[in-house]
């Protein structure tokens, strides 16, 4: 398996995982099956879509490969069918989600670089790819995005993207970059969940300007 | 009247109807007249705008034809002026909205095909054109999108778009396609309202992952 | 200093001011530092980003000049560090925000014209640039956009953009246009705050269609 194939497989696992988290969030809002599929799509491919709209990276991935939409819809409907089992799979999902977050961040960097953007934009692209699906999911489900409050979620994406970018500038081989960034992002996220690491919160309750 | 003109007239009726539903939703949030016009614009042309951004279909329709914005603003302000009458027109609006939904879905398919996209994307394009104006309206008005919960709303759009796509692949004439899809989408939506048809809801109240 | 440099300096002041209002809004939602930076970015450059996506004006400004992102992040973190002082600076922020609103509106008109769009789209572009950062901020912070309800906020943007467009059509010099539009927009907004001017509100509490 080449490193491109590895990333593609991990990306697809991440997409399906995000689809499931989207479907569950829709279920918490008592949406109908259409809403479930829609929120699953937005969660699974929203990050890459926002990234490509911002960077002008047309055609969008799911427009070029529309069968991904069917896979996401299927994952969403299977989530509904097997929802009573979901409570036993929380740990599995958090693990797959950590993997997806890491892979999405790496892919975001790769995509921006392939479009000729500079390092800082590549890192921002990794971050956007990693976290924006979840941000859109929460927006459609009427809650302040968890990403803005949760254990190191966005920070893991940022660290992974920055490290991958740094290794790219150091001209590391693709395998080396993956061998370093995948376990690091994945491990950092799992440790953050396990020990409830978080970054400081800004609590400002003054009224006034805006 | 050619079939292109028919679709254009129906589209414009749909745009003005959506503008009115947007203005009323803004009124329920006690927005000022500017907010009313803004939400009316987002509701009326949001679906086509999201579609064209996703598919890269530039220039956007209202950018190429800015006088549509004035028509929408006028419809929004007339809604405010005649708001005491609106309660008597509920049935009329639901009817016009059903027509608009059907026409928007058909136009979405046509647009994607004209841009060279495959059938599955054309159907998704019809769906996005049909429902995203309402989704954006509800997002700006702080409620979980009705589209994700209401009687067959999105399903009507999906069925209409899929049928229109199927007839296109069967090389039916444009008149035949409209003669089948318009009454079917329109009738299905009216029946769904009349008999409160809906698709199953996913109710998932477990806490846990995300 | 040329008029281009003047506008650039004022634009940058506006960007930093909006970054601060975004950071404070994030603090009211008790977001973590990442959320603070993210909402600051969205508020500061969201208006121009939405405009350029709608008009197809690629590359986006912050993609072409990524160091602006660092300046915004720094402004956001400084806001957190000095948040106890913010309550004493309310008046200063409202003043800078009024200036930013005016400048953003002018820049939006200029950008649309430079892309070859007609006057009506140029005015819409000024309005979008002026108000959409604040709209996105409120969307991410789960409140009905203040812009849709606040003292003449959007109206100031609209008046400034329309006036600038009119003077452009009358072939006024760039300095003359700025000498008229900047004080007018700025003054109008300050007067609106001082005397609590507002435009009529639409209050519609009937249930029914949508």
TrEMBL record, chains A, B, C:
Presence of the UniProt keyword Thylakoid in the record: no
A Pfam short name: Gly_transporter
Keyword entries, A-Z: Cell membrane, Membrane, Transmembrane, Transmembrane helix
Record-linked InterPro entries: Gly_transporter (IPR005115)
UniProt domain Glycine transporter: residue ranges: 9-83, 95-167
Domain of life: Bacteria
Major place of residence: membrane
Membrane-traversing stretches: 6-26, 33-54, 66-85, 92-113, 119-140, 152-169, 175-192
Membrane topology: Multi-pass membrane protein
Subcellular localization(s) per the UniProt record: Cell membrane
GO cellular component, one term: plasma membrane
Family of the protein in this entry: Belongs to the UPF0126 family.
Protein name, as recorded: Trimeric intracellular cation channel family protein
């Amino acid at each position: 398996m080449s490193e491109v194939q590895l990333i593609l497989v991990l990306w697809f696992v991440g997409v399906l995982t995000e689809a499931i988290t989207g479907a569950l969030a829709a279920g918490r809002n008592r949406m109908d099956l259409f809403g479930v599929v829609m929120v699953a799509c937005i969660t699974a491919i929203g990050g890459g879509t926002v990234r490509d709209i911002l960077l002008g990276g047309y055609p969008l991935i799911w427009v070029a490969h529309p069968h991904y939409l069917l896979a996401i819809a299927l994952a969403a409907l299977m989530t509904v069918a097997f929802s009573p089992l979901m409570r036993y799979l929380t740990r599995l999902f958090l693990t797959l989600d950590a993997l997806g977050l890491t892979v999405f961040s790496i892919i975001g960097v790769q995509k921006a670089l392939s479009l000729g953007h500079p390092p800082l934009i590549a890192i921002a692209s990794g971050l956007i790819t990693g976290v924006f699906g979840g941000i859109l999911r929460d927006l459609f489900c009427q809650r302040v995005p968890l990403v803005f409050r949760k254990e190191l979620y966005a920070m893991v994406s940022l660290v992974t993207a920055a490290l991958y970018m740094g290794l790219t500038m150091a001209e590391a081989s693709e395998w080396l970059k993956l061998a370093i960034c995948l376990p690091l992002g994945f491990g950092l996220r799992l440790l953050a969940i396990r020990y409830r690491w978080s970054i400081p919160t800004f609590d400002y309750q003054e009224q006034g300007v805006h």
